[in-house]
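FORM 7B: Structural annotation worksheet

SECTION A. Query
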Amino acid sequence: MSRFLEDCVVVEEDTDDGLGLETLYGLYISWCHLQGETPAPEAPFRDALHRQGLQPCENDPASYAGVKMIGPAARDFALNNEPCDLPEPHELAGG
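SECTION B. Predicted structure
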């Protein structure tokens, strides 16, 4: 887990913005794919984050404040995951 964190995230202490657990786990899966490793299930992944000192927000246990994606796995994750809140092209005005 420490290699994943070193390769894929930075923590900015002065912000409340961050990543949700689902996004962080997706980033981990991308990293595992690029490393040729088999990802751990989500619950052991979450436990490993806690053992490495990464704690969820007090008011939102599914979010990690200050955590940002970096590196090749972040690019892979961003390129291979569709944003779920964007309208379909036919739903846009004039489209």
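SECTION C. Observations
The mean pLDDT is 85. The chain is about 45% helix and 15% strand.

SECTION D. Sign-off
Analyst initials: ____
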